[in-house]
Amino acid sequence: MTKNIDELVAHLKDMGFVFQGSEIYGGLANSWDYGPLGVAIKNNLKQLWWSYFVSKNPLNVGIDSSIILNTNVWKSSGHLSGFNDLLIECKTCHSRYRVDKLIEAFDPSFAWAKLSIPELADYIKSQKLPCPNCGSHNFSEIRQFTLMFKTNQGVIESEKSTVYLRPETAQGIFINFKNVQRSQRKKLPFGVGQIGKAFRNEITPGNFIFRTREFEQMELEFFYNPEDEKDWFVYWMNQVETFLAQRVGLNPKNYRLHEIPKDDLAHYSKRTIDFEYHFPFGWEELWGLAHRGVFDLTAHQNGSGADLTYLEPTKNQKILAEVIEPSVGVERLLLAIFCEAFTKEKLANGEERIVMKLPTKLAPYQVAVLPLQKQQKLAASELFETLLTNFNATYDETGNIGKRYRRQDAIGTPLIVTYDFDSAVDHQVTVRHRDTMSQERVAISELDTYLRKYL
């Protein structure tokens, strides 16, 4: 795993994974665009999550809810009144900080969560917390900063036209609980998954794509009868760990489980566990698993007046379902995968090669086709078009063969097929493996089967 985030960012830009947003206009702070390789791996990751948690799980279905919802959704959920961060500003250098992050940087063990704003201000003053940027102790008063992006719907701006970009995808699932349950004739337990954009006006975004104001979430809301004896929290905890270790290939040494203390739990949570990953900038939350109880369905039932109960058939009794929520940000998980894959190796000849050791299901391309020399271009391009039928393939004829190998290593292509001078005679090609650099001759007629075996 790389310990140099700047080196990783430079590599991802050079290779076409991630670009600075609005770069030709000087950029936009904390805005990132995904290039051809970035959008490919991002889509592969989302498809992998969807397959594992939704389409291949017999308990679950999926939806795609609106980004802009009725403002009453956010009033009932508590976002309008409580979705805030505490902001403090250094009067000397005018740097702004989240109060919790400022305190955690000074004393990670200090229990700040239950303190009032005046108590937090007293602590910062009495302990003489320094500004991380300039070292001074001259801070402003603490104020609340809303994380909701506000906009207007319609032709006339007014209080009635105010709407918000969703800060999470979960509420779109909760308000559609009854629609999904009724239309799909689902019985408890069942889950509803969703992948989509969310927006948070973060005070201190940063660390590349780790914390951004515009991001994607992959969330599952799993509904079950409170009297169900199965420990669904442990079930989904194991499912998340299996996905991290076996599907996206994270080294278990690089992530850990952190049980959130009861005093620090969100108001809606009965229990929360964070899967934390060891990023180059330290241990940070990667994936959250929350037991939300009946908070959300109760809130929306009370706020809307709609009946969001479930008729339990064996007892013919209406109940409110409890909820377990595994939630992960696409970009955070993608950054962990990039950190895990980015590898620098010293070769026997003293040269260094950079390899993105991506899992085959995530790599932007599964196979690359290269002609050895320009004389093989026609035959190699025909082979490439044939492979496109069944594989995510790419074709490269620019530069000498060694440089082309290195280029494919650097973007993470698992297998390279080289069409050489002998191929027209023996009807075989050379297949090179990314991680070991080993090569073997394979008959073109058997190439499809060979590639499937490894991919």
What does this structure look like?
By secondary structure, this protein is α+β, with helices and mostly antiparallel strands. The chain has three domains: 263 residues, 2-Layer Sandwich (BirA Bifunctional Protein, domain 2), CATH 3.30.930.10; 60 residues; 90 residues, Rossmann fold (3-Layer(aba) Sandwich). Helix content is 32%, strand content 27%. The protein has 15 helices and 23 strands. It has a seven-stranded mixed beta sheet. Helix 12 links the parallel strand 19 and strand 20. The two termini are 23 Å apart. The model has no long low-confidence stretch (mean pLDDT 94).
**Total beta-strand segments:** 23
CATH architecture of the largest domain: 2-Layer Sandwich
| Average pLDDT | 94
CATH superfamily of the largest domain: Bira Bifunctional Protein, Domain 2
Remind me, CATH topology of the largest domain?
BirA Bifunctional Protein, domain 2
User: How many discrete structural domains?
Assistant: 3
**What Rg do the Cα atoms give?**
26 Å
Given as residue ranges, the uncertain stretches (5+ residues, pLDDT < 50) are none
Structural class determined from secondary elements? alpha+beta
Main sheet characteristics: 7 strands, mixed
EC number: 6.1.1.14
Family: Belongs to the class-II aminoacyl-tRNA synthetase family.
Organism: Entomoplasma freundtii
Enzyme class: ligase
